[in-house]
User: Fold these one by one.
Assistant:
Number 1:
Amino acid sequence: MEIEKMSLDYESFSDQDIRKCGAYRYWESPASRILLMGVSVNDGPVVQYDFTRGDLPPDDILRALADPKVEKWAFNASFERIASSTWLRRHRPDIFKGYGPPGDSTGNYLDPEGWKCSMVWSAYLGLPLSLDAVGKALHLTEQKMTEGRDLIRFFCIPCRPTKTNGYRTVNRPEDAPEKWSTFCAYNIRDVVTEMGVKDRLKKYPVPDSVWDEYHMSERINDRGVLIDKKLVDSAIILDDQSQQDLMGQMREITGLANPNSPVQLLSWLKEHGCPADSLGKKQVAELLKTAQGEVKDVLLLRQQAAKTSVKKYIAMKSAACSDGRIRGMTQFYGANRSGRFSGRIVQLQNLYRNSMPDLAEARSLVKTGDYEAVNIIYDSVPQVLSELIRTALIPKPGMKFVVADYSSVEARCLAFLAGEQHTIDAFARGEDLYCATASAMFHKPVVKHGVNSELRQRGKIATLACGYGGATGALISMGAREMGLKDDELQPIVDAWRRANPHIVRFWHDVDLAAKTAVRERRTTSVRGIRFICESGMLFIELPSGRRLSYVKPRLGINRFGSESITYMNVGQTKKWERTETFGGKLVENITQAVCRDILCYAMNTLKDVQIVAHVHDEIIAECPMDASVDAICEKMGRTPPWIPGLLLRADGYECEFYMKD
């Protein structure tokens, strides 16, 4: 029988914690091994292979794993693909087939082409990103077995040696035959449940273009990015020395046994006339505005000690493979409301933004491991380590990084989608967006570092906070008070921004009405080329690219303000599958960010001849030969996709010997 498609699931063992190191480092460990494989061929019954007993799959299944023409399905298919790559390389090198150009580390993995992920399908349709949760959301007959978590803890990770278990460090099938039997059933059920997800969702297939983007994302994850191991190791050591130093100084001032204890420190602060109910970042910053003497000294020390930069370095060290590269840092469709990518392991999306003018000198000094020198030259060791986090990512020898990103892409897209011509014209003239916005708000010329320049800050915060229906609360969240704005100044800023951007305001209302009409009347509506389709218990928003955003089980109801609003099922802030409310401004935010995501994917596909090692928000990081042209890469990145003609894009870039913000 010719194998055309398979659904599979592995149970495995490793001495590495996958939550901390990711799947690539997990599978690279010599201790990693497949325990069970459940597989359905051509939608047939699930067959299980027990690797622990030498029961291995036949050659036709093994060859199908390596054949990009065979469609292979799994929930979180990255794990199964990396596992298959490792096992075939170790045990059947005659079958294993890598991919990619010579010298590219993608050659260590099976080509993502041919692999499809039912978790991505779930995300595309606005469903949860765990097999257990999506099975419940879809009310599948065959749900994921609840015993799985305990069984994984028993068989899949090292155990603590005790007298009772004969001081073993690994639990094997013969140690608990009944548990193993249940574990085998659990493995089979996972395949059945995954197939049930596909069957339930088959009415709404994922477009081929999205699968192409998934494969592109997997290739970038396979390539990974090199870390400066010496810098990482030194940073971890210096942070430990810094923490001991800071705690010593705090102990000397306060007399506390453990000044790192929030309970003890809060009590000390109260005794010294500085009552507080929290030592969070914002609370400490607020207390410092009025603190004096020893209290101020202690709060400043606490502020330094609370920096979490070392966690990033530890994450890098934990995830680094034997070649020094960290892989799997990007989750495809991690934000299923817009389809944007999200971060994993090191979380590149929230790295500290460097501002030091002497980054190269600072990182060279840190690499020497000389704590005293770093402490003398710089005011704060933790601050220096935070500034250097980005620089721990480096190109391989003989190469350079080219970093390129879009200029104000979200503002450009919002103005284009809404038809806000004064903003579109400002971009066409190459003007500063915040100055142009302030000029429109206050009806006077605003020039950066020039006439009426003090109004630019108001234009900036209004642009960032008000574009999706935000009001005074959004301004405060964006830091209006920290910028020196008074509360009675906030509403006038909101009002001025809305008067200056009537088409965007109108766009919120038009989108809100179109979505409500689609839900109420079960018919297709449209606003400025954006289509709203409600059918079979789903609200779809079709974007210019043809990709759709999905809202599950939409309903109309009355919100807390007494107005009609749309609700839908979603994984909410409580991490539960629950009903969530939305409105026109939020839908416009979803649409705009989704269009920006599609533009980035289009650019990465245009740059497929460039070795992209990572991407963050609207920025790409490419590992390039020394003669690569920054301008050529930016020109390609700045091309307008054919599905959104007329949108003006611009990409700017620079080259560097380590990752940084220019």
Number 2:
Amino acid sequence: MLLASSLLAVPSARAQVDGRSCATPEPTVVEALRMSQQVRAFQARTAEVGRRRAGPVTVPVAVHVISEGEGVAQGNVPQAWIEAQVDTLNATFRPLGVRFALALVQRVENAAWYRDLGLDSDEEQAMKQALALDPSRVLNLYTVHPDLDYLGWASLPDAQAEGDRQQGVVLLDQSLPGGDAAPFDLGYTGTHEVGHWAGLLHTFAGGCSSPGDGVDDTPQQRSSSTGCQVGRDSCPLDPGLDPVRNYMGYSDDACMTEFTPGQQARSAALLGQFRPTLTAGGFALATVPGTDLAEAFVGVGAPAVLRVTNATDAPFAVTGVAASGRLAVAAAGLPATVAPGEAVALALTVAPGASGAFAETLTVTTTRPAAPALVARLRGTAFVPPTARLSTTAIDARVVDGGPAERSVTLTNDGDRPLTFSIDPAALPAWVTLVSPASGEVPPRGAATLAVSLAPAALAPSRYSDPLVIQTNDPVQGDVVIAPGLPSALAVLPVWPNPARGPVTVPLALPEDATVRAEVYDARGRRVAVVADGVPMEAGFPVLQWDASSAAAGLYIVRVWTPSASAVARLVVTR
């Protein structure tokens, strides 16, 4: 059996990489001869019975994006890079009769997998065991920052059984199109490693000795080349120049341009022999990334991406999506047609109906004649979302002379996840000078007390409609607001100043819009002033003014009437 994997090593300076190098020994002559014999035997059998199926082989690709995690974005490559890598595979493998469809993009945060991954390491085995998707029908591709600065490696077809979870390709994340691993940043590292996965060896395997890479139309090459050494002839006694433009060499990405017909025949034989389920085709897949629903909120629609892949030779349409158990699912863009060898991405909205762990089945209905239903698995945990509740949504914002200028409000979190809150100082209403604390986090099922400092001078004698807005991460109601509340009954609030010598403010509590009459009487019951004579006022906390400068010292009574109620207050005038 040949070696399990091929590795490409690269120096640590990612912005400019000096050259590829292989860290794994090449197969021995005996191993290479055995593989060539297997290729010839398979080709002989297929020649006798004819092709198993017509048309290109469709390879669904599951891309597992591993990133540093813990608030570090390193490794979380953009979706555009991933799609460009699949496009590159399709462009370069077209001569080999292989097409690729992006069947899954799964993003996982794991610093050890991202930074410490090495060939056959404990980290690699754990990562693939946890993440691999249906290896007998899917190419699992992992993007990481490999240990020892390798550009990547791949499992050869005969390395494990076709369904073994250790099958797959590992790539340096920055080697994808858009990365910074120049001159290996055009996506041809992916082509090179998938070539190994398809059974191709380095063009310099075996040096100038037969059987070399097991392909007749790639001239023998004594050693790997660097850069773009067109015209190099490292085996001058053998016909042909070194195949430095071949994807299975070590040239710079910009120099790579080809696979040969012999490589196409070899990969077809090895894929057919060791990956028969994949090459037989005739199947479809439905996938949802497990990380999309790792945590979801009860009753709150969470976005997810459903990808449906067609590995058959005929188009079909996706007509419906339904969930079992406690999930509610809605899919946009239906019906959606899936062409042969392609995948479509459908936007889902998934809402759990109850808290706790869930493992549900998503049934995708299609127009495929033989097997119209596809199944995807949804796993995760549902939580009651952070839920903001205020002890009051209306506070008495009127401040009288000598009275408190601060109110307390309790913000409670009724959810299972922390509730964050913040108040924009620039957006405070005129009747508030400060809220403390202005931001913070309320633990699950916890509460926080907010002190609201008032600005009495900014309160107009009318209705106060400008609310105090508290921004939260409550996904249902978002912001919560506090407004100056309306009183429940007519009252003359404490006048101020009291005692007084000059102007006096008479604050009222007015529960509804009304016509107001207000008068001042001395201790003997004589009316000394009319402060308001049928003045229309709005509900809230309006104020009246009376100038007591000319009043004699003594006790005075302030009487207020509306058509439905009356109230009084006392005032002392001094000299």
Number 3:
Amino acid sequence: MPKYDRNFTDELRERLSIVDIVGRRVPLVKKGQNYWGCCPFHNEKTPSFSVNEDKGFYHCFGCGEHGDIISFVMKSENVDFKTAITELAAQAGLKMPDYKPKPAEQVAREESYYQIMSAACDIYQKLLFEPAGSVALDYIRGRGFNDDMIKKYRIGYAPKNNLIANKFINVKQDNLLATGMCRRGDYGLYDFFRDKLMFPIFNARGQIVAFSGRSLDGSEPKYINTTDTELFHKRRTIFGFNFARDAIHRANRSIVVEGQIDAIQMQCNGFPETVAPLGTALTEDHISMLCKANRNIVFCFDGDAAGQKAAARACDIVMPFLRDTSDVRFAFVTGGKDPDEVLKKSGAGAMQKIIDGATGLVDFLWNLANAGFNVSTPGGRSQAEKFLKQKIEKITDAALRAEYDNEYSQRIFNNWHKWKKQNQNIPRMALPEIDDITKNTVIFIVNKYPEIAERYGDFLATMNIDFDGNVADMTMDEKSAEKYIVSLKLQKYIERLQSEKKSLTSKLLAGENVRDEIAALDAKIADARQKMDTLVSM
């Protein structure tokens, strides 16, 4: 029997989820970290067949069968190894290579790469704490990194000269070049990374496969990464995954941020399940790797246009990986900040609020449709419906796809076509009377900007206002109009909370133990006022 290239079979295991492969033949139910079902290899009524998605193996506690995706296909379909991997390659979208034993020379060469990069990392680490690395050390400490963090993540400094090219003069040049750390010039080899703060990049097994260097003089680009090599492919590498892997299991989710400093700070400040893509946008390979660890993902991006675009792309990529056990959410760090800055200035509690306030995928995709198209017009609604349909068609689980379709069908009917009817028939809350200026302003906004009216229809419908009335034209753009409605909504919310607090205070004076409820209301009032202050200052 010929030997087969482990790189290819490992890639099959990385790309394909064993839960998906086994789930096509065995109904599985998630319990704890594993999935369970009745074993397909012997008759049983009580499920004893366990599937571990992260480790990529199955095990039956009844008959002892054990294996991975390849052995499962071989045994369940009674086919040989080559047939099994051919079938799996088709599912993974991979071309079958010409199989042959992995040459001993290649094994030795790859081991040489690991040794070179680990030795180079040791040199960089040492230099960071020497006079030559003082600027780099001051910078990274200024970003909130202490010495324990620096040592854990093996951060270092690459000097301005050709240190690596000179240090590894006795190493075979082709091997040194193959690591991406050096390049060949007219006068011999020279270092690719010079005068850079160095972050080693680890594979999932904790081996250094590449480096990311940050400029220290303000030059662009801020970061340069090792180009793709035999061991390193940016599209298939997630920064921090080797550190986060166990934490992802414990937290039952992963958090994805935009950069490596954000990822490290998150890991060291209470969010060890955080990772980041590396020098490239999120790819299917990144999502596949994360979903094998856990299908619950929180994407946490900057709130600017670039962050919104990155979130939309992440939403698009994650759709085929959704299962009914998935919980995918989107959080945004606003105010021109990133997670690193939030943690330094406001602490882990503030970051926790951002993560806890993340928007679920169903709502995020709905918001994309509303923001991207003018749903106040028939043509805009048609475009938005096509957009939603195109996205949910990517869901491979038929039952889940049908649920998404049903959810959006109801929202389209209720939110895009029935707002005025809801406005007439919904029970009205007993709110304080509003003055004529406020009433006329709200009527103007509803008539001028119907998309705002639909977005805040539930709130507007509670007000005792005849929206069909005519009012004078006002100078107010759409952004200011929405800001006005949001501030009015916050004001009413604060008034309601204060009324509840007043009632609870009366109970407290009467001897009832309601201090915890009052404290909770105080926290809500403070949070609402902070939002109001932020809105006013925008």
